[in-house]
């Protein structure tokens, strides 16, 4: 289990982190979201030991994380760190060796990742000749080649097409299923909502929302009640809370409050009820509310 507890970091008069804390359990996919400059990258760099925190602690398995622990981590920085002139397979194998793999093990792991990430036809090409999406795949392979104990990815899906997103997402889900704590930052909130078990929303260096995705959605209230009625008489919703719109031969009533049963009885009396249910807020809506 990776624990980040009370991290604080200042640059002169600017507070970059103000008591940031979160926990990523084994096998959990954690989405770390926030606006540019909110503190996501600073947090990740402290976890990886690239930066020192002014205070706070990073723990792995209940004890302070060490240099040797960090050698077992997989890290994908926002600013990609590939050697542009080096060939794809050579590069992945090279990083495997840097992480302590024997030559044969590094070659085997590289071959498996090249196959899994769809890079077989480009394995002999220099990185500079690849598209952005394929460079992202190589960067992910570099982070995975040594079978990391923790996986930390800063904007791994940035600029990718849907097929590349799906390929990377499947690999991350496999690593989580193997018991690896996975934390990644992203501005693609629909993707975070789809992939992640838990999420943390950071704003101006502080965690403003944190927890399992389902609990966060429930915590924001009952959601919006949506009622769809076909062939209803005009004025049937007069006196009911909410906003009524017309879609073809259907009336659509959206309510944030009011008694559900009273609204349902009125709708049944007005016409054929085709839909009646509450829609929980999306992660994007929770994000906007949290950082407002």
TrEMBL record:
GO cellular component: plasma membrane
Pfam families: ABC_tran, DrrA1-3_C
Record domain ABC transporter: where: 2-229
A Gene Ontology biological process term: response to antibiotic
Membrane topology of this protein: Peripheral membrane protein
Family matches, as Gene3D superfamilies: P-loop containing nucleotide triphosphate hydrolases
Record's subcellular location: Cell membrane
Keywords: Antibiotic resistance, ATP-binding, Nucleotide-binding, Transport
Molecular function (Gene Ontology), one example: ATP binding
Domain of life: Bacteria
Similarity remark: Belongs to the ABC transporter superfamily.
Full protein name: ABC transporter ATP-binding protein
Taxonomic source organism: Microbispora bryophytorum
């Amino acid at each position: 289990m990776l624990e980040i507890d009370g991290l604080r970091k200042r640059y002169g008069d600017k507070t970059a982190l103000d008591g940031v804390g979160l926990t990523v359990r084994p096998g959990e996919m954690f989405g770390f979201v926030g606006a540019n400059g909110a503190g996501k990258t600073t947090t990740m760099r402290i976890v990886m030991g690239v930066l020192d925190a002014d205070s706070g602690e990073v723990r792995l398995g209940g004890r302070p994380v060490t240099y040797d622990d960090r050698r077992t981590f997989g890290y994908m920085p926002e600013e990609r760190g590939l050697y542009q002139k080096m060939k794809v397979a050579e590069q992945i194998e090279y990083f495997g060796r840097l992480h302590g793999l024997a030559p044969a093990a590094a070659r085997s792991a590289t071959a498996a990742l090249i196959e899994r990430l769809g890079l077989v036809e480009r394995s002999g090409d220099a990185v500079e000749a690849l598209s952005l999406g394929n460079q992202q795949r190589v960067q992910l392979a570099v982070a995975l080649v040594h079978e990391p104990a923790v996986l930390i990815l800063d904007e791994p899906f940035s600029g990718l097409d849907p097929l590349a997103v799906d390929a990377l997402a499947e690999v991350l889900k496999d690593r989580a299923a193997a018991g690896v704590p996975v934390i990644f930052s992203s501005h693609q909130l629909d993707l975070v909502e789809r992939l992640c078990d838990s999420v943390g929303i950071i704003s101006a260096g502080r965690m403003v929302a944190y927890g399992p995705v389902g609990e966060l959605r429930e915590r924001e209230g009952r959601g919006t009640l949506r009622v769809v009625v076909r062939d209803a008489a005009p004025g049937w919703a007069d006196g009911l809370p909410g906003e009524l719109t017309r879609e073809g031969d259907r009336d659509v009533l959206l309510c944030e409050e009011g008694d559900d049963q009273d609204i349902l009885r009125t709708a049944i009396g007005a016409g054929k009820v085709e839909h009646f249910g509450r829609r929980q807020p999306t992660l994007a809506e929770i994000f906007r509310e949290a950082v407002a």
